[in-house]
Design brief:
The complex is a heterodimer of chains A (about 200) and B (about 425).
Chain A lengths: L5 H9 L3 H10 L1 H12 L2 H18 L9 H19 L5 E2 L15 E2 L15 H13 L3 H13 L3 H8 L3 H29 L1
Chain B lengths: L18 E2 L1 H12 L9 H17 L11 H11 L6 E2 L1 H12 L9 H15 L12 H30 L7 H51 L26 H10 L35 E4 L16 E5 L2 H8 L21 E5 L4 E4 L14 H8 L24 E2 L1
Antiparallel strand pairs in B: 3-4, 3-7, 4-5, 5-6
Helix pairs in contact in B: 1-2, 4-5
The chains are: A mainly alpha (about 200), B mainly alpha (about 425).
Chain lengths: ~200, ~425
């Protein structure tokens, strides 16, 4: 028996099939939770947003256009809920002025060449828990907007146009932001791994 | 650029722009207090204060920030400006990333010229696939259950809300409890209001009836003046017919009463009791009598006797009374009840009393058909005596419609 599509499940749920909703929650518990943990920075906050997301799915199921894909809709809801939570819990970043201050003549912008970044290959033996913590640390250091677009695009394997449609921003903006997001993540990853080696 | 802090999580998140760390904040306060002279700042803050001065010095070169802005805003704007110097991918990596996105993050599909870099970008991004905290400990199932429970609570709350909303609105199904409540309220209302309402209706009917008798009394007085104190009479004898045969040509006693109307001394309406549902109020052609016994509202003193009462009698006698229940029952062949009140005020079998027009023009309310003299207005005197001596007065000697009063002072009305 073939598996029902996400869109069929949400349609069935609207028709009163409660098991369809359970199937949807189960189907996305790993992908969506991982996305949210990366976005929120903590498991507890991610679980709370996960529940809020499916609560919103329940509330908005009647208005969902089953001709469209369910997954981008779900992740957009999750991103919006996560953003709201982060905004409520916002803390202003502290900055140590001991950091180098560029002189008046410096251009300031730095370019990242990923060929120069120490990116572990998939085969490289690395403690899974340690890697996960370093990844989270690197993501946490990214600006919110860049972190969100990076996670949305990567976890859904979305194209630029799809991201533009979901976030309702121009295609060019999506492109430049994703470039910046990957660069930011690369630099953060470099920083946290360097720091980790130093600590060792 | 680095923000220099090492903690993870929300401590790094910012939506409103960065703030100063505690050390720099204290140094800035000290610097402001010292008139922006770092030499005057306490040694523990001096190093940071000197750096703050260096930073503020860069603002003097002019970078679009207004010179009159507050110092804190100037610093924040300058620090926020550092975000503009966020790192960017080199052009080759941008191309590789674009190609990777276009191919759905599948490096194998990327053109060979960009594949090496796209693999590198893919490797970096695959870090995001690292399992997150608690992902492999089976907590996912409990999250599913917790999520479903939360949604169910929302559904329950919606249903409660709908119920409350429905109860506030008018469009809802009426249940048995509602009907019982309404019925109880109606019963209470009826229980309280019905006796009051019924009592007012009864009192109103009794008053209207009394007014009728008063109007009729005026007519009787006029008639008496016109006919030497005589009372209206259509025929001196029933001519072999029963005096309760209403509608027969001037042979019933009701026809004698009707003469008051025919002679123009009273309106038919004045002889229609509001307590009689069959009363008629309008004349039909050359009418000599009511059409049926039920149409007659008032029982007139039986005029078929040798000695008839007069309007100017010394001892006021009864002229007319609310219709007789005894005649009604006797006419139907039912057992008569000699002490039964007129059905005009309470119905047959449950009358509360009757009005009576006396020969002096007065109207009395008789709670029983028996006058102070002991005379029962429903029966002739001889029949009353017969009944008094009977073993069962209720069944003794019913009226037959041919009885007559035993004298001018014998009150006996009919029909």
């Amino acid at each position: 028996m073939s598996q029902r599509s996400d869109e069929a499940l949400i349609s069935d749920y609207r028709s009163g099939d409660a098991s369809a909703f359970r199937e949807l929650v189960s189907r996305y518990r790993e992908d969506l939770l991982r996305f949210l943990v990366r976005l929120m920075g903590s498991r507890a906050a991610a679980e709370d947003v996960f529940q809020e997301t499916f609560l919103q799915v329940h509330l908005s199921a009647g208005g969902f256009d089953t001709a469209r894909r369910f997954k981008p809709w779900l992740f957009t809801i999750a991103a919006n809920k996560g953003r709201d939570t982060l905004r409520r819990n916002t803390r202003r970043r502290t900055l140590d002025l001991s950091a180098p201050v560029p002189g008046p003549g410096e251009a300031g912008r730095t370019f990242i060449d990923l060929m120069e970044i120490d990116v572990p290959s998939p085969d490289e033996a690395l403690d899974e828990q340690e890697r996960s913590q370093l990844v989270q640390k690197a993501i946490d250091q990214m600006p919110d907007a860049l972190r969100e677009i990076l996670l949305l695009a990567y976890f859904q394997r979305m194209s630029y146009s799809q991201v533009a449609e979901v976030l309702e921003i121009p295609l060019g903006t999506v492109k430049s932001r994703l470039h910046a997001a990957v660069a930011s993540f690369a630099r953060s990853w470099q920083a946290v791994t360097t720091e980790s080696r130093t600590d060792d | 650029m680095t923000d220099g802090s090492t903690g993870g999580g929300d401590a790094h998140r910012h939506e409103e722009g960065p703030g100063l760390c505690a050390g720099d904040g204290a140094a800035l306060d000290a610097l402001v207090a010292a008139g922006f002279d770092p030499e005057q700042v306490a040694p523990e803050h001096r190093g940071r204060a000197e750096r703050l001065c260096a930073l503020l010095g860069t603002l003097e070169s002019g970078d679009g920030v207004g010179a009159d802005a507050g110092i804190a805003d100037l610093i924040m704007a300058r620090i926020a400006g550092q975000d503009q110097r966020a790192p960017a991918l080199c052009p080759d990596d941008e191309d590789a990333l674009d190609a990777l996105v276009c191919e759905g993050f599948r490096t194998g599909r990327v053109a060979s010229g960009l594949r090496k870099r796209s693999e590198n970008v893919g490797a970096l991004l695959s870090l995001l696939d690292s399992p997150v905290e608690g992902e492999s400990d089976g907590a996912g199932e409990s999250l599913v259950e917790a999520t479903l429970a939360r949604v169910q609570r929302e559904i329950d709350a919606e249903e409660v809300g709908l119920t409350i909303e429905a109860r506030r609105g008018g469009l809802r199904r009426i249940g048995i409890p509602d009907l019982v409540s309404v019925a109880a309220m109606l019963l209470i209302g009826i229980g309280v209001l019905w006796p009051v309402s019924a009592r007012f209706a009864s009192e109103r009917e009794r008053a209207l009836c009394q007014a009728n008798f008063q109007a009729a009394g005026l007519g009787f007085g006029q008639y008496a003046q016109d006919y030497r104190a005589a009372l209206p009479m259509a025929s001196a004898s029933p001519a072999g017919q029963r005096w309760w045969e209403v509608g027969s040509v001037e042979r019933s006693n009701s026809a004698n009463l009707f003469m008051l109307v025919r002679s123009g001394h009273a309106e038919l309406d004045a002889l229609a009791c509001p307590g009689n549902p069959h009363a008629v109020r309008d004349m039909v052609g050359d009418q000599h009598d009511w059409a049926t016994l039920q149409n007659v509202s008032y029982s007139y003193q039986n005029m078929f006797s040798r000695e008839r009462p007069r309007w100017d009698s010394v001892m006021p006698g009864v002229i007319a009374v609310d219709r007789s229940p005894v005649v009604l029952r006797a006419r139907r062949g039912e057992v008569i009840r000699t002490l039964e009140n007129s059905p005009n005020h309470g119905g047959l079998g449950s009358g509360r009393g009757q009005n009576a027009l006396m020969s002096d023009g007065s109207v009395r309310w008789l709670p029983t058909p028996v006058l102070d003299s002991g005379d029962n207005v429903w029966l002739p005197r001889d029949l009353e005596r017969l009944i008094e001596g009977a073993t069962d007065p209720r069944r003794a000697a019913p009226l037959e419609g041919n009885e007559s009063p035993q004298g001018a002072d014998d009150a006996f009305v009919g029909p």
